[in-house]
Design a protein that fits this description.
Helix content is about 25%, strand content about 35%. By secondary structure, it is an alpha/beta fold. The protein is elongated.
Length: about 150
Amino acid sequence: MSVHELFAYLRVQDAGAAIDFYTRAFGAKEKFRLTEPGGRIGHAELLFGDATLMLSEEFPELGLLGPTSVGGTTVSIHLHVDDCDALLARAVGAGATLVRAASDQFYGERSGTVRDPFGHEWMIGHEIEAVSPEEMQRRYDALMKG
């Protein structure tokens, strides 16, 4: 058995608003959505470049809750882009909260983090240099030593 793909699947309050936000903030394109007769979005898929993000409304009756309902998230989604500063500004302009401003990182990336209005965190970065795993470890060790 082999894994063919991996998808992030987000649960949110107000999936329609989330789809709108991800479109405005990150340039996502909606592939499709499945809507219940009462209007609740049971499943939607968005394209971020070639990558698919799946999302749905919360289903409290099934124990499926998003970060807003559970008081936070332990997951960060990483978007590797051409210009992290521009996309961070775009996301904040669309309603995201800046968690960490963009800065150059030891692992060869310039990155920052935003929290979307639905409680999910997005690390947004672009490469500034190619760093081997060995050099990355050396830099990490130095960072941890202070």
